């Protein structure tokens, strides 16, 4: 399909709507078949409870701190509040979280400190490993920071 530009003769070519849709479908198929499609992470559908951490002098097991992975997100309970946000897992053992949102309830001072420490360490995590029912998050220096125990897997 061609049309005049109204200024006296320059013509532009436009794809019919069906042609654009077909091109997008073909491009999507090529990307998916070329290995660019993301494989589900081994963390997908898993739930964890914080067992240990390296930064805080507080005992991690005294607080209700959890993590659940689903559909490219992490969510859970951070000691006092519920939290959630985007999470990138892979390639390889790479790990990162995006902007975390949380409820804004107040709690006991130790629980608030624990929550702050947890969210700080979670934001600094750059790699992960899963071994023997434990999920370990590592910081940029490859130091262990958060260690979780399996809490269950969604059906």
Structure, described:
- Helices cover 21% and strands 37% of the residues.
- The chain folds into two domains: 2-33; 46-153, Beta Barrel (Lipocalin), CATH 2.40.128.
- It has 155 residues and is of the alpha+beta class.
- The strands form two sheets. Strands 3, 4, 5, 6, 7, 8, 9, 10 and 11 form a nine-stranded antiparallel β-sheet that branches. A two-stranded antiparallel ribbon has the order 1-2.
- It has two helices and eleven strands; from the N terminus they run ββαββββββαβββ.
- It is globular.
- Residues 1-6 and 10-38 have low confidence and may be disordered.
Highest-level CATH class of the largest domain: Mainly Beta
Q: SSE string, helix = H, strand = E?
A: EEHEEEEEEHEEE
**How confident overall, as mean pLDDT?**
80
Largest sheet features: 9 strands, antiparallel
End-to-end Cα distance, whole Å, is 52 Å
The tally of strands reads 11
| β-strand amount | 35-45%
Shape: globular
**CATH architecture heading of the largest domain:** Beta Barrel
Number of separate structural domains: 2
Class per helix and strand makeup: alpha+beta
**Any idea of the CATH topology of the largest domain?**
Lipocalin
Distinct helical segment count? 2
């Amino acid at each position: 399909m061609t049309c005049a530009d109204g200024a006296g003769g320059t013509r532009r070519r436009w794809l019919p709507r069906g042609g654009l849709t077909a091109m997008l479908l073909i491009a999507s198929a090529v990307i998916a078949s070329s290995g660019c499609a993301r494989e589900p992470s081994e963390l997908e559908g898993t739930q964890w409870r914080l067992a240990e951490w390296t930064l805080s002098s507080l005992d991690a097991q005294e607080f209700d701190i959890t993590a659940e992975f689903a559909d490219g997100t992490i969510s859970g309970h951070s000691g006092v509040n519920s939290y959630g946000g985007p999470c990138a897992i892979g390639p390889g053992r790479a790990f990162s979280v995006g902007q975390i949102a949380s409820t804004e309830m107040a709690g006991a001072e130790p629980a608030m400190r624990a929550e702050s420490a947890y969210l700080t360490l979670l934001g600094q995590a750059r790699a992960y490993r899963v071994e023997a029912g434990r999920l370990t998050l590592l910081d940029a220096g490859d130091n262990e920071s958060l260690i979780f125990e399996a809490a269950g897997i969604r059906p």
